[in-house]
Amino acid sequence: MLEQRYRWKNKYLRDHVSVLDGKLSPTLLLKNARYLNQAFRKWMTANIWIYNDRIVYVGEMLPVTIKNCEVVDCEGLMLVPGYIEPHAHPFQLYNPHSFASYASQFGTTTLINDNMVLALQMDKNRAFSFLSELRNLPSTMYWWCRFDAQTEIQNEEVIFSHRNVKSWLEHEAVLQGGELTAWPKLLAGDDLMLHWIQEAKRMRKKIEGHFPGASEKTLAKLMLLGADCDHEAMTGKEVYNRLMQGYTVSLRYSSIRPDLPVLLDEMHELGIDYYDQMIFTTDGSSSSFYEQGMIDHMIRIAIEKGVPVIDAYNMGTINIARYYQINHLHGAIATGRVANINFLYSETDPTPISVLAKGKWVKKDGLPLDAYPDISWGDKGFEPLTINWNLYPEDLQFSMPFGIKMENAVITKPYSISIDASVDRLNDTNDECFFVLIDKNGRWRMNTLLKGFADRLDGLASSFSNTGDIILIGKNKEDMMKAFYRMKELGGGIVVSDKGEIVQEIPLKVKGVMSDQKVETLIEQEKKLLVYLRERGYQFSDPIYSLLFFSSTHLPYIRITQQGMYDVMNKTVLFPTIMR
């Protein structure tokens, strides 16, 4: 309903009042509902009247008329507000539609989403049209406004122009600016970014930080410049430092940073036992990580770690809504709120048996319902990736004096190349692979060696990357080319070739960076790929994030970008890309 100035038109508001007057019937009545009331911080029993997508009454009364009303006796169940994910990256092979549908089965029915892929892959008018389409889903979708590309791109001043950023900030579905991955530029004097922050604050919107390892002084400076929240605390002490400087702290449990259990232990050791300034996020994890659940799983971990039950639920609901100033709509079961409600068997088991989203059943009695209408991706500007150029043997020439070495799934350092890289196939006795980043439009390429990714991988091609450009990795140039041409044939994807045969593939037919399949399908494809890569020497936690972050300059130390090989710490291009 965000396509109009107000969420509910005057006529609908009058209808809501008419339900209380007995002139209209509720569409859904939840009787004898034992529910979490955050105003009293206790479990209470009431009757809950719902009219279409809104809760119109919570209390002891029953409606005068229940014509055309579904009546549900909630005896034996416990009701909590729908969970909120405040920091979603809905483009990690899954797409916003499939991710919202999957998340709803675990009770997460409100998502605050990164707009990076929309900003990089399409013009803002088509992006805004897509946002409008997503409003028809049972899930509620809010968005961020990025201020930078998180890498060095060739036309950043166009994509992140003042006009584009201002238009995103002004959009009514956008709740915050950030995340501030380019905060070093901000501290170094980037006044345009500071202006955007000022504009966001003027519009009463939040600024999300991204401050891993930031010192107390740096945190204080960034708070002065407008930051409100940060999700990069990796120890209890870092949580403490952020709270001391006035931040809302987003506790993280993700596929590359499953920190929550340790954070809670260390927080409790420091005597932190007040949780109103804390919220939960899964920070855009890979599909397979979500097999265990989402915000519901974080609530479960918190309860197991000794967080009071109501505080655990609040960190996934009302705390987030209050922080973003949307608590008049979300985060509570109360009159006037959007009817997002989770039905539980037990207060210590936060995974719901049934789920209401905007007053619609999306899960009932443990069974998923077909509540998310299909999207025609091509009509929305998300057609398959079209590659109208060819890859040639001369594109796979390697003469770089040093390459990049993986320290973990996402951190890369430089290393001196000591092997002969002029051959067509590298030896399996080392863990070095050929590595190419090549423009998705075929205009430029960057070639080097990658150490630590695998030691027996013949050829991998991926159109999933930070910018949507093509990544090639492997020991064998012929297999790298074979994987590339299969990926091209698919319209985008992650493809592996071994000894001339395609052995793994994840089609990504939505712009070459997202799948059009359900998350459940992606989970199986991802797990199969991870098993294969581990057999070929991949030793880290998350190959999907490895592919995503090879170009991401918000992480140290060496990155391969559209500009070339980039030294993050010194902010310089060491070797420029080669024009084809």
UniProtKB/TrEMBL annotation:
Organism: Cytobacillus solani
UniProt keyword list: Hydrolase
EC number: 3.5.4.2
Official protein name in the record: adenine deaminase
Signal sequence region: none
Family, similarity comment: Belongs to the metallo-dependent hydrolases superfamily. Adenine deaminase family.
Origin superkingdom: Bacteria
MF (Gene Ontology): adenine deaminase activity
Domain Adenine deaminase C-terminal per the UniProt entry, residue ranges: 411-571
Residue span, Amidohydrolase-related domain: 78-362
InterPro entries in alphabetical order: Adenine_deam_C (IPR026912), Amidohydro-rel (IPR006680), Metal-dep_hydrolase_composite (IPR011059), Metal_Hydrolase (IPR032466)
Reactions listed under catalytic activity: adenine + H2O + H(+) = hypoxanthine + NH4(+)
Pfam family, one: Amidohydro_1
